[in-house]
Amino acid sequence: MITIKKHLSRASLLLAVVAVAGCSGTPTYPPAPERTGQYDWNYLVGPGDSVNVFVWRNPEVSGTFPVRPDGKMTMNLVEDLQASGKTPTQLARDIEKALGKYIQEPIVTVIVGGGIGPFDQQIRVVGEAAKPQALNYREKMSLVDLMIAVGGLTDFAAGNKAYILRTVDGKQERLGVRLEDLLRGGDVSANVDMRPGDVLVVPESLF
After folding, report:
1. Name one Pfam family in it (predicted).
2. Using 50, 70 and 90 to split pLDDT, how confident is the model at 26?
3. 144 with 200: CB under 8 angstroms?
4. Mean pLDDT, range 68-75, rounded to an integer
5. How far apart are alpha carbons 131 and 153 in whole angstroms?
6. How many whole angstroms separate alpha carbon 27 and alpha carbon 189?
7. Are 137 and 100 contained in the same domain?
8. 27 phi and psi, to 5 degrees?
9. Terminal-to-terminal C-alpha distance of the chain
């Protein structure tokens, strides 16, 4: 009788393990929206960017200026101007307003080099990715693009348990993604759009 109970106990444990392992491939959170490749996004200047300022008919004021870690920049005739978090066009208008004290009706064009952007627009990958890191968002960036950049998954990743932390209308959401199906199963329907500020979390598998 004791032997039978032991066999039943082992069988129950094995079934429980199989059941949990089977569930490990099921996304935990509501799925991320299907990929459309369409997203209205404008690049914002960030610390570390290089800003080329052209002031029409005023070459002595024009030049290339860095955006400091505090998000501000200093150029000829203008000190400590907030640059981070603005589009190049918005920054150009602010420079025109600041230069208006010295130049009559200045016309300014801003060209950004560096492509770093504000930190809150960067995409971060944490957990069981081959190379967890923060990356600059690029127009129409998808989940596949992101995973190529971080070198894919580790052998310990629970790819179909991964999720995206995304802030929508001031609220943080968790959106499930199927990395296992996408990368190892070749299921292109699992590819989704990324958004500026997304955090991709790849948990470790229990088995």
Report:
1. SLBB
2. low
3. no
4. 97
5. 9
6. 14
7. no
8. -55, 140
9. 32
**What pLDDT is recorded for position 116?**
85
Cβ-Cβ contacts under 8 Å for 203 (sequence gap 6 or more): 127, 128, 157, 158, 161, 162
Q: Considering the domain boundaries, does residue 37 fall inside one?
A: no
Unique residue bearing structure tokens 């997304």: 198
Same domain? For 206 and 127 the reply is yes
CB contact set of 95 (below 8 Å; sequence gap of 6+): 53, 55, 75, 78, 81, 106, 108, 110
> E strands of the chain, at which residues?
50-55, 63-66, 72-75, 78-82, 108-113, 123-127, 133-135, 163-168, 171-176, 199-202
Whether 144 and 108 map to the same domain: the answer is no
Question: Residue 175 carries which DSSP code?
Answer: E
Partners of 113 in beta bridges: 50
Inter-residue contact 27 to 160 (CB < 8 Å):
yes
pLDDT at 206: 83
Query: 161: domain range?
Result: 122-207
**Residue 14 φ/ψ, nearest 5 degrees:** -65, -40
Instruction: Indicate the pLDDT class of residue 144, thresholds 50, 70 and 90.
Output: very high
Check which CATH number belongs to the domain holding 109 and give it. 3.30.1950.10
